């Protein structure tokens, strides 16, 4: 069976690197754990790092975190739905919000549970996902800041999540100005300006982040060390905290092109035969024990760079090992680095074993 391995030492080194640079700049930060899909084995490894704040977009995952360590501050990082309000107040200390109606419901539920619930007001900054429009922010704040059992922890934004808008210095300065407007208008203090995600780490390392941006939410940088501006690895971080290992279950010399009348495959794709192909050409193909049910192959990179991924069906993936200098045999294991979405697919699959090195 294919398995996903988390390398504990590399995770620890990435965490120490990030924690150090944030502390040097007086930035509070939390680990975004939605990638882990509530896997208890891996959540325990995150908690063991000394994390004090964890972010997730699934209530069931926050519930697990609270069960493992009730003292950790949990943050629900998408606008709550009406049917989840009770659970959000119970298991999340803070939530992201964009609707007055929702915050009013949270206020009533927090009263029932005898709690004060923290909220971050998310602002639309151009990526066109969740967020209050900037011109409506003061009116929005005025309607919610005095609600009972509600504490406004800060303002925030999400960039590069839907449309790919990058968190430039100008964008973060604009977010900082919203903080100043609220504070001046209502004579209050906004503790957090939560404008930092993994994509903003390079700006921080260049000292280009506005000082008012004092809260970061980090997932991809911790697990993959990726600079999302350049797609390179950030110096000082590991890009292989997670690795996929898959077993070879067949090796056979086969034709390069299918033979017979062609229709759609299981994924709805139709094979397109190139013109003037030599139908006698063959390659050495190996079949691995995972498929589309577990992973999309475009998010994989073989450690053996001479391997080519051909395609996947529901439960199997075919690779071309013709050019490899390794003498692969049935039963051997092939290793892959992962992109973020690749790891997300695997962690959401019940059919991939999860282990810690």
Structure description:
There is one protein chain. With 357 residues, the protein is of the alpha/beta class. The protein folds into 2 domains: 8-233, Alanine racemase (TIM Barrel), CATH 3.20.20; 242-356, Elongation Factor Tu (Ef-tu), domain 3 (Beta Barrel), CATH 2.40.30. It has helices at 8-24, 40-48, 59-68, 85-91, 100-112, 137-144, 169-186, 201-205, 220-224, 340-347, and strands spanning 3-6, 28-32, 53-56, 73-76, 94-97, 117-122, 150-156, 192-194, 196-197, 215-218, 226-227, 232-233, 242-255, 282-288, 300-302, 308-312, 317-320, 333-338, 353-356. The strands form 3 sheets. It has a 9-stranded parallel β-sheet with strand order 8-7-6-5-4-3-2-10-9. Strands 1, 13, 14, 15, 16, 17, 18 and 19 form an 8-stranded mixed β-sheet that branches. A two-stranded antiparallel ribbon has the order 11-12. Helix 4 packs across helix 5 (100-112) and helix 6 (137-144) crosses helix 7 (169-186). The longest helix has 18 residues, at 169-186. The protein is elongated and about 80 Å long.
Topology:
Blueprint: E1 3-6, H1 8-24, E2 28-32, H2 40-48, E3 53-56, H3 59-68, E4 73-76, H4 85-91, E5 94-97, H5 100-112, E6 117-122, H6 137-144, E7 150-156, H7 169-186, E8 192-194, E9 196-197, H8 201-205, E10 215-218, H9 220-224, E11 226-227, E12 232-233, E13 242-255, E14 282-288, E15 300-302, E16 308-312, E17 317-320, E18 333-338, H10 340-347, E19 353-356
Parallel strand pairs: 1-19, 2-3, 2-10, 3-4, 4-5, 5-6, 6-7, 7-8, 9-10
Antiparallel strand pairs: 1-13, 11-12, 13-14, 13-18, 14-17, 15-18, 16-17
Protein name: Alanine/ornithine racemase family PLP-dependent enzyme
Keywords: Isomerase, Pyridoxal phosphate
GO molecular function, one term: pyridoxal phosphate binding
